[in-house]
Amino acid sequence: MRMKLSQFKFELPEELIAEYPTENRDESRLLVLHKDSGKVEHRVFKDVLEYFDEGDCLILNNTKVFPARLFGKKEKTGAKIEVFLLRELNSEARLWDVLVDPARKIRVGNKLYFNDDNDDTVLVAEVVDNTTSRGRTIRFLYDGTDAEFKAQLHALGNTPLPGYIRRPVGDIDKERYQTVYAKEEGAVAAPTAGLHFSEELLKRFELKGVDIAEVTLHVGLGTFRSIEVEDLSKHKMDAEYFRVGQDAVDIVNRAKAANKRVCGVGTTSMRSIESAVSATATLKPAEGWTNLFIYPPHDFRIANSMITNMHLPFSSLLIMVCAFGGLDLVMEVYQEAIKEKYRFYSYGDAMIII
Among candidates 161, 158, 175, which has minimal Cα distance to 114? Predict the structure, then answer.
């Protein structure tokens, strides 16, 4: 039977979409779903440690969010333009794939000026290509070193909070829209399941003998792009860069061989490991671009548990969670989460499926 987008519909009260993170990372709520029995528990996130034993394994996505949202002005008219950096295409030529808003005002050949707090022009970019209705390729005209150029981007850029958050970006977001273990810069959105882990909680996992495997998937906007087809087999995900190294492979396969708990933290970790499966259903080293779209039914071959956030209806993230936990069960549990007033989306509460 073909999976239909309409099967992932539910009514989410707007007030349950989190605008701010909890005061402490590891004190958000945690819904525990036992997928074999259907049992549900309501806990606090730091209690998640109780569900792990020595030799179990956590798989974390160590991508780091960069300040991808810039505000500039169009030459001559001075019209304000938002430029969202998606990815660097060529570091030597300083070519970037971006989204612009309002797009109708930005054409090939236009120059964009980016000013600092003193209204002095710091960076200039030229539009060199149209890629989609909102997409452009731009070239930054900058003569300094690559390190100096990246420093300017960081100084000018803003934390790329999801568009549904209407409030201005605050100082809190620079810290909290980033995992405590973020290392590899390249994401334009946070791997949000990892936002619940504090340094103290990770240390407690380590002391308990739980192994940590790190993978990298640079989260792009494609992860959150609306699905516009009813037949899910026809949906195409945007490709995102990922890497699974030998250290992670060794840790995960050791836990699998011992029949231990292997837990993917977040949908991006799950996509990474499901994109790096060997012919013997073990994890293998891999690096490249993945456009894997996971929807029911899907045979998950690496992880046997999953930590994730509470996701929006019709999203590819919810669809993956339903593939892992079971469509009917997860949709039923979401109704309970709404009744219990769990907080949803990037800054929302968490769920573990075991």
Answer: 158
